[in-house]
Design a protein that fits this description.
41% strand, six-stranded mixed sheet, elongated, alpha+beta, three-stranded antiparallel sheet, 2 helices, 196 residues
Length: 196
């Protein structure tokens, strides 16, 4: 009987120790010595159809801007540690990974965004995050055959290209210790009609 109680007690103590070490977390995240457990990261956008050619709407230029999305981060302090919040993302490196079934390979330059104004709190944090800027869209449009060097549409237009945008971000806790988190969103690039 005493052995069973001792074994049960040791198992509870071991599980508390392992949980307080911050095991688990979002795939690809690394809490480092921040004491922040990143539980999940999602990136979403109002639309994943991203226009790469500025057209004309009733004799007025079509709306044409960089595309942004929302990064939602769920985080918690590791058990038994000093409160590490608030934290903040200091840099995000974006890479554009083309769908493997694409008929034509078109690379998009990676993008490093410093201090994206994303605070991490205990619980759920929501931040606006860049997805692709105008310069990358214009270069892509020419390389993929959507537009000529002057930005004029070329016809017939290719089918939309599919990319996964991968975010590899570094964050700091309130003591400036660093960790990392990752997120992804799939986007479609083409000459979409944004006239509404």
């Amino acid at each position: 009987m005493k052995k069973r109680i001792l074994i049960a007690t040791l198992m509870v103590l071991l599980s508390v120790f392992l949980f307080s070490c911050g095991g688990g977390g979002s795939p690809g995240s690394d809490s480092g010595s921040t004491n922040i457990n990143i539980q999940s990261v999602t990136v979403t956008a109002d639309t994943t159809d991203m226009d790469v050619v500025q057209g004309v709407c009733d004799d007025e230029p079509e709306p044409f801007t960089k595309n942004t999305g929302t990064m939602t981060i769920t985080a918690a302090a590791q058990i038994g540690q000093v409160d590490p919040f608030p934290g903040a993302i200091t840099v995000c490196k974006l890479s554009y990974i083309q769908d493997k079934d694409a008929p034509v390979a078109v690379s998009i330059d990676p993008w490093t965004i410093k201090n994206p104004n994303c605070v991490i709190i205990d619980g759920v944090s929501v931040c606006t995050i860049d997805i692709i800027d105008i310069d990358r869209k214009l270069k892509f449009a020419v390389a993929a055959g959507f537009a000529d060097a002057n930005g004029n549409p070329i016809f017939p237009q290719p089918a939309p290209f599919v990319y996964r945008v991968h975010y590899d971000c570094t964050y700091q806790n309130n003591s400036e210790k660093t960790g990392s988190l990752v997120g992804d969103i799939t986007i479609f690039l083409a000459n979409f009609d944004m006239c509404g």
